[in-house]
Every structure is written in structure tokens, then in C-alpha cells.
Specification:
alpha+beta, Immunoglobulin-like, C8orf32 fold, 2 domains, four-stranded antiparallel β-sheet, 7 helices, globular
Length: 301
């Protein structure tokens, strides 16, 4: 858990003659930046011999789950808010905790761990449900999780720190990180053609190889933004008929900027890092992306 929070830069908005004008309210935060890290505190645990669900920090917007059955089998975990979409994850079978966001906000959640029997058949190992009341709505999108996995020692964090060290507001940091990712990471066509279901991005590997698929782009940028205290959602959904990943970002004073956009000083532009990098902001792709109506979100991580 984090004992102190970064005070976000405020982005003031006023209407002048029917046009939005943006003014930066700078924040001189003298406190050292903290990277929030999930912890299996052990104070509230639901378990049996096959699985353990640590719900000690659900008020911070995450749970931690591990399989303890000892079998060398495929394990899955489903996290679902009552009446909402079910999030299905692959879970390691080594007895190590993994972190999953409570991305759908407050409400009653169920968490179920499954063990593979044969083929596509799974049996229930353990299931539990509990009520969630998140004390800070941004927490699920500031902490690392299975899809956006980073810590204070990650190279992605070091690069983000270097890129933003002379910047004093979140809007400038957002723009700097965006341009770095689209300028330095190339789309990996071969990987896109061979990637298997359940693939998990590795942000430092993406930095090292300087290439990746859409999920790698989005995970890297999301990790870098979160490391700077900027709430960010890695979104998985559809662009037209294509399964894709992009980013939504929270700007204080504006709110959530959906469909992953950035502000270029005059207007908001779509910030989808894969399309921007692959097509170098071509007029054709920008026309397709447009105001984001071609984007349909399914999951938020």
C-alpha cells in the first residue's frame, strides 16, 4: 500500500468565446515519487488447499491470487463484478501471487480459480465473493498488475523518469512519453502472426527489443505513465473488426480522456501508440481513428 500520494498537476479549463482554453497549474511536489506496489498483506484471505485469494487491499483496487494445488496443470482465474463482464486470466501454477485489478469499480465481486482437467475442460478449485469499496477511484489504474507489470527497478520506470525529469506538469509528461514510445518501438508483424492466447506483455523486454505488438505498446506506455503518478487504463477491445489495445488517461481538471488521446497544444489527438507508430500519423489512419467512435472497449487493466 502507498502511505502518501503524489499531488497531481491541475489542468484548468475555461471557456473563452466558445473555445476551450487550457491552463497549466504547476505543482511543486517536494516529496519523493513513490511507485505503488501491491502487497499480499494476509489480513483478509479466502482460501482452501488449492488456492488463496488475498483481499486485504481491495480498498486500493486490487486483489492477489495464487494457486496452491501443486499440480503441473494450466490454471485460470476469473474475476467478475456482479452483473458485469468476466475477466479471465491465466494463473501460474508455482504458488506465486499475481495481481489483478478491480477495474469495474465498487460492488460485489466473485473470484474463481479453475484447474485444467483435459483439453478445454476445467474444474473449480476454489471460489469466493466479497464486497468492494475502493477508497480512491484511480488506484486500480496506478498499481501494477498482471498486464501492466512494473516496479521501481524496471527499466521502463528509469526511462520515464529520465524523459520527464525537467517537466513540471502531467500533460507535458504524457506528451513526452507518447512521442518516445511511437518514435522508438516498431510493430512486430511476425510476433502478431504467431502470438498465442493468454500472451502477457513484458515492458522491459519491449524496451530492449524496441519492437512489439499492440499489447506491448499499450502496456509499456501505461506502465511509464503510472510510474509518473498519472492514472492510465490499458484498454483491450475492438477497432472495427480488429482486436486491439489502447490507452485511456486521466488528466486532473479534465477527467478521463477516452480512446487514448494526447493534447498537442491546440487539440486532442488520438494517442493509440500502435497505429501512431506503424503509420507515422498518416492522414488515412487518422481519418479512420477520427473521434474514437471506431473503438469499442471490452476490458480495462
Amino acid at each position: 500500500m502507498v502511505n502518501k500520494q503524489k499531488i497531481y498537476t491541475a489542468l484548468a479549463v475555461v471557456v473563452l468565446g466558445g473555445t476551450l482554453a487550457f491552463g497549466i497549474v504547476n505543482n511543486n511536489d517536494a516529496d519523493a515519487k513513490l511507485i505503488p506496489q501491491p502487497v499480499a498483506s494476509g489480513t483478509t484471505v479466502y482460501s482452501n488447499s488449492g488456492a488463496s485469494i488475498d483481499a486485504s487491499n481491495i480498498s486500493d483496487g486490487y486483489i492477489m491470487v495464487k494457486y496452491t494445488g501443486g499440480a503441473d496443470k494450466k490454471i485460470k482465474c476469473i474475476v467478475q463484478k456482479s452483473g458485469d463482464v468476466a475477466y479471465t486470466y491465466n494463473l501460474n501454477n508455482k504458488g506465486n501471487y499475481e495481481t489483478f485489478p478491480l477495474a469495474e469499480g465498487n460492488g460485489k465481486y466473485s473470484v474463481t480459480v479453475y484447474e485444467n482437467i483435459s483439453g478445454t475442460k476445467y474444474s473449480t478449485v476454489y471460489s469466493s465473493s466479497f464486497n468492494v469499496n475502493i477508497k480512491n477511484e484511480f488506484s486500480p489504474f496506478l498499481y501494477p498488475n498482471q498486464y501492466v507489470n512494473f516496479n521501481e527497478n524496471s527499466n521502463a520506470v528509469a526511462v520515464a523518469d529520465k524523459l520527464t525529469e525537467n517537466l513540471d506538469n502531467d500533460l507535458s509528461k504524457l506528451t513526452q512519453i507518447y512521442h518516445y514510445v511511437i518514435g522508438n518501438i516498431s510493430y512486430d508483424t511476425q510476433k502478431a502472426q504467431t502470438v498465442e492466447s493468454g500472451y502477457l506483455p513484458n515492458v522491459d523486454e519491449t524496451l530492449q527489443t524496441r519492437k512489439g505488438i499492440c499489447l506491448d505498446y499499450a502496456s509499456l506506455m501505461t506502465a511509464m505513465l503510472r510510474s509518473q503518478g498519472i492514472p492510465s487504463k490499458l484498454i483491450v477491445g475492438y477497432t472495427g473488426n480488429l482486436y486491439h489495445a489502447w490507452i485511456n488517461v486521466y488528466i486532473n481538471g479534465i477527467g478521463w480522456v477516452d480512446k487514448a488521446v494526447y493534447f498537442d497544444g491546440n487539440s486532442w489527438k488520438l494517442m493509440d501508440p500502435t497505429f501512431a507508430s506503424s503509420n507515422r500519423n498518416s492522414a488515412k489512419i487518422q481519418k479512420y481513428i477520427g473521434d474514437g467512435t471506431n473503438y469499442t472497449a471490452k476490458y480495462a487493466y
